[in-house]
Amino acid sequence: MKYLAIIPARAGSKGVQNKNIRAIRGHPLIAWSIRQALEVPSISDVVVSTDSLEIAAIAREYGAATPFIRPIALAQDETPTEPVMRHSIHWYEAHGIKHDAVVLLQPTSPIRLPGSIQRAV
């Protein structure tokens, strides 16, 4: 099976400014989820869906794909996660890449036990 890991990380945050790229133990918060996804052999693609060029650049530094910038309409405070995921899936399908399943990794919840993602897959 071919899995797509989607990490949604928008720039706007009311509570903690730039939370997705703030350093936690020496690395941006988003880096922890990217690294964990890249360690799972069955995940073929790790994409960060973001509306921020800065987040996209940091995500690429840590090995994630950022083949698009998320439309502003999908980067609002009240935007549900599901349309953001559909946008990512549709982008890959439009480029001839199909996945059997999707793994959603919220960057604001980086504390996962080793092997948790693989077991979930």
Please sum up the structure shown:
Helix content is 31%, strand content 17%.
Account of the protein in words:
The chain has 121 residues and is α/β, with parallel strands linked by helices. Helix content is 31%, strand content 17%. It contains four helices and five strands. The strands form two sheets. The chain has a three-stranded parallel β-sheet with strand order 4-1-5, sandwiched between helices. The chain has a two-stranded antiparallel sheet with strand order 2-3. The model has no long low-confidence stretch (mean pLDDT 95).
Layout: helices, strands, pairs:
Elements (H helix, E strand, L loop, with lengths): L2 E6 L14 E2 L2 E2 H10 L4 E7 L3 H9 L19 H14 L6 E4 L11 H5 L1
Parallel strand pairs: 1-4, 1-5
Antiparallel strand pairs: 2-3
Average pLDDT rating? 95
Distance between the termini: 10 Å
Alpha carbon gyration radius: 13 Å
Helices and strands: which structural class?
Answer: alpha/beta
> What fraction, in percent, of the residue positions are helical?
25-40%
Largest sheet: 3 strands, parallel
Question: What are the main properties of this structure?
Answer:
121 residues, alpha/beta, 3-stranded parallel beta sheet, two-stranded antiparallel sheet, 5 strands, 31% helix, globular
